[in-house]
Design goal:
- The chain is α/β, with parallel strands linked by helices.
- The protein has two domains: 41-156, Rossmann fold (3-Layer(aba) Sandwich), CATH 3.40.50; 158-192, no CATH class.
- The protein contains seven helices and six strands; from the N terminus they run αββαβαβααββαα.
- The protein has helices at residues 8-13, 48-55, 73-84, 97-101, 107-126, 159-170, 175-180; strands at residues 20-27, 33-40, 60-66, 88-94, 146-150, 155-157.
- The strands form two sheets. A four-stranded mixed beta sheet has the order 3-4-5-6.
- α2 (48-55) runs parallel beside α3 (73-84).
- The termini are far apart.
Length: 192
Amino acid sequence: LRYTDTLFTEQERGVSIKSTPVTMVLPDSKGKSFLFNIMDTPGHVNFSDEATASFRLCDGVVLFIDAAEGVMLNTERLIKHAVQERLAITVCINKIDRLVLELKLPPTDAYFKLRHIVDEVNSLLSRSLYSESEDGLVVSPLLGNVCFASSEYSVCFTLGSFAKIYSDVYGDVSYQEFARRLWGDVYFNPKT
């Protein structure tokens, strides 16, 4: 369902052309609900002015990046504008299904592709205004500000949410510790 595609041309093409606000009450993993005012902005470079104008109204940005295409020129522009506005950035690497179904990448190569996207975003952030401050801004699945999704298959997860599933199955596993081991040069062996 595409709730924010209100214009006929948006519905016809399946892309956002104008920024559209939506208010939703969303629960967290602990059952507590929060009110979110969300701005769906166009991702195409021809409509980047819509996204830039919307940044002035926001407290944070969820930046969607196609897993197969990676960081594009417009992604760089959006990161630059988000940094200029001092907005918190969360990255959603979307269309992860394309890594398997279209690119036919084995799991290790798919991981390296995802890691390259995260590294590229961090490289852009390090060259930005945030590099002047001590705390800086870094995105990492380990920090919980990167999620992975497939809109096609209605899937979205973070390392923490994925690890929680396994901790429920294996019982004695701390999901925080397990989540920390899902990113990097670490492999899961169900027997150990």
